Amino acid sequence: MELTKNFRIFLKPFFIGASILIIASLLFITGYIFVEYKQYLQAYQKNQHIELKAIQQKAQEITNTLKELLQLTRNRIGASQGDSTRILNILNSALRLYEPYELPKIQNFSYYKLSRPQIIINRFGIVPFEYKQLAQVTEAEPLITFNKGVIKGTISVFNEKSNIEGFLEIEINPSDFKTALENFQTLTFTSLPSSQNKNHYSLEIDSLTLHAKSPYNFWKFSFLSKNYYMFFFFILFSYLLYLLLALFTSIKI
What are phi and psi of 54, to 5 degrees? Predict the structure, then answer.
C-alpha cells in the first residue's frame, strides 16, 4: 500500500507536467499551422499576379504572331499576281513558318478574292462565292477580333495599283486559344460558383475573362499539410499513450 501511495504521489506532478506539455504542444502546432497558412495566402496571391502577367504576355505574343502571319501571307499573295494555284500553295505552307507552340490551332485560313472571278481559296481548295454576302474588309493593318464563338484575324490584300484585291481571314476557336496559353494553377477561364468567384480579371488585349481561383481555407490547408505535422502528432500520441499506460498501471497496483 505504501508503495502504491508513493507511486501515485510521484505520478501526480508527472501527469500535471505532461498535460501542460501536451497543451503547449497543441498550441504550438496550431500557431505554427496558422503562421504557415498566412504565408501560403501571401504566396498564393503573389503567384496569382505572376500568372496573370504571364498569361497576358503570352496572349499578346500569340496575337502579335497572328498579325505577323497575316502580314507575311498578304505580302506573298500580293506577289502571286492573282495566280490561284500559287495562292493555294501559299496558304498551305504559311503555317509551316511557325513552330506548333507559337500559334493556337487554326480552324480556317482563307483568302477571299474580290476581283473577278470571285473565289474563296483555303487550304482545302477553291470555291466561288458572292461578295455581297460578306462584310467589307478594308483594314490595311491586321485586325484581331475576339468574339464569344470565334476569334478572327483579317487583313486586306492590295494589287499593284493599291486597290483592294481581296482579304485574308483566320478563324480560331476560343478554346484552342485558351489552350495555347498553357496551364495555370490559380486562374481559370471556367466560370466558378458565386461563392468562389469573388474576383475576375479581363485580359487587356481582348474580351476573354479570367476567374481567380480561391485559395484553400484554413481547415483544408491543414488537412492537406498533415504530413508536415505528423512528427509533432506522433510525439503527442506517444505521450498520451505513456500516460494511459502509467494510469492503468497505477490503478492496477
Answer: -65, -40
| CA 89/CA 252 separation, integer angstroms | 95
Q: Chain-centre distance of CA 217, in angstroms?
A: 21
Place of cell 505552307: 93
* Inter-residue contact 83 to 170 (CB < 8 Å): no
Reported CATH class of domain 1-184+222-253? alpha beta
Side-by-side strand order, sheet with 125-128: 125-128, 119-122, 108-113, 164-172, 151-158, 143-146
Q: What residue ranges in the chain does DSSP mark as E strands?
A: 108-113, 119-122, 125-128, 143-146, 151-158, 164-172, 187-188, 200-202, 209-212
- Contact yes or no for 202/210 (Cβ under 8 A): yes
Q: pLDDT for 84-131, tens place per residue?
A: 889 999 998 888 877 777 788 898 999 998 888 888 998 888 888 766
pLDDT in tens, 11-44: 566 666 666 766 776 777 777 788 888 999 999 9
Q: In this structure, what C-alpha cell is assigned to residue 82?
A: 492573282
